[in-house]
Design a protein that fits this description.
Layout (H helix, E strand, L loop, with lengths): L21 H20 L9 H19 L8 E2 L5 E2 L7 H8 L1 H5 L7 H23 L1 H6 L2 H12 L4
Antiparallel strand pairs: 1-2
Helix pairs in contact: 1-2, 1-7, 2-3, 5-7
Length: 162
């Protein structure tokens, strides 16, 4: 049996340098995720306990909170040592993205929620996924030009408590 080790990063790759204001922006994003998760958990329960009701009160808010709390601009799109494109994740793992992606399918079974709540849940899932993709695609623009902050404001608006 032969063991072949993958090559490590080349020596000429510069270490990641955080963008100006990055810690503050990421802290605000994590806080926006916590607020959105709190709103989701506050939604009315189904009249009869159901798997969808449990998913909406546990799995979805946990995914939103995890995604917004794990954002990482260093995990952006880049070229590997062999020149191939490596698609970044913005710090959000595939399982969390998958959970957010099935929100439109799950909502059809959440008939106890109002249409407004459905739309707002879709917005929360979409904005959360979009923020991670934005950081993966262009972290500098997202952070330095306020795009991430604006998307967090959209998340806050969708998850507002009325």
């Amino acid at each position: 049996m032969t063991i072949a080790y993958l090559p490590g990063p080349p020596d000429d790759v510069p270490p990641y340098e955080p963008w100006a204001g990055e810690p503050e922006v990421l802290a605000e994003a994590a806080e926006a995720g916590r607020r959105a998760a709190t709103w989701i958990r506050s939604l009315p329960a189904p009249p009869v306990p159901s798997p969808v009701g449990t998913w909406l009160t546990r799995t979805l808010p946990d995914a939103v909170e995890a995604a917004m709390g794990s954002l990482d601009p260093a995990q952006c799109d880049r070229r590997g040592p062999d020149g191939r494109l490596i698609e970044g994740t913005g710090g959000v793992d595939a399982g969390t993205v998958s959970t957010l992606a099935i929100v439109p399918c799950v909502l059809s079974d959440a008939d106890w929620l109002t249409p407004d709540q459905h739309i707002r849940l879709l917005a929360v899932a979409s904005v959360t996924t979009g923020i991670a993709r934005l950081l993966a695609d262009d972290p500098g623009t997202a952070i330095l030009h306020g795009l991430l902050a604006r998307m967090c404001a959209t998340l806050d608006h969708a998850a507002r408590t009325d």
